[in-house]
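User:
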Amino acid sequence: MVRVRLFAWFREKAKRDTIVLNPGRYTTVGEVLEQIKNEIPELRDALKENNYFVAVNHEAAEKNTEVKDSDEIAIFPPVSGG
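Assistant: Predicted structure:
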């Protein structure tokens, strides 16, 4: 299974903090994001923008990053600090 963790306003829009997807159906982060857009309409617009950060197993990831069974993907909104 691939577990997707949502943070901040992604979690609020989806009304949940975790999405569990079946293994073997996804090979890249981009494919996972497309599936989330299809399954959770509330996140469709937010994920169309490239204004978010994705990590796979606690490491920064791009849309072409490979996803394997048992991976954890995290989606964060942009953050700023000072």
